[in-house]
Amino acid sequence: MGMKEFGIAFIVAGFILVFLGTWVYIPAILFGCVLAALGIAMALSYAKAKGSSRQFEAKQLAAGYKYAIMANDGSAIAISPQHKLLLLRNARFQEKQYPFESVRGWNIKFQQSGRVHGAGSLAAIGVANATNRTNRLMDAQANGLYIEVKDIDLPVWRVAIQMEAQQQRWHEILTQCINEGAV
Question: Which of 96, 113, 150, 177 could form a disulfide with 81 if both were Cys (CB 3.0 to 4.6 A apart)?
Answer without folding.
Answer: 177
